[in-house]
Amino acid sequence: MRKSWRDWLPGPEHGAARGVAVWGSPGFRHDGEQIADLLAHCRNLPPRAAAHGATLDGDPDSLAALDRFLDPMTEDDRHALQIDGGLYLGTAMVRHLPGVRWHLWPNGHPLVKLASGREVDVVAIVRDLADAGQLRLAALYADAAADS
Q: What pLDDT, in 10s, does the model give residues 95-105?
């Protein structure tokens, strides 16, 4: 059996990014504020929330409002959440939890790095939960708050 060149790469941080990749100039990777500003722009989610009467302002309380309007989740809601939901959750964590910041893997995939050092792949977690119809953004935020 022929081995692939990816077999020697240590983990998912190498290879293709999953859903979202962030690229910029060489110094961009170390500019946490610029990365946070870029990832805070979720295009698909705010209009869907507004259509359901929820305002997304980046506040952790808006996560519970988002959970309420997504129960039950339609197919369109699921598509809007697959990437934007994770970015929105990560943005709320970065803005409101002390010591939390965005971290980019070498392949450009964004993760939230908690003050404890734990990395949370919010995009993948929210995508998987949205696909399963079990989305609870407020609970994910509370878990991160307890760990940071």
A: 999 999 999 88
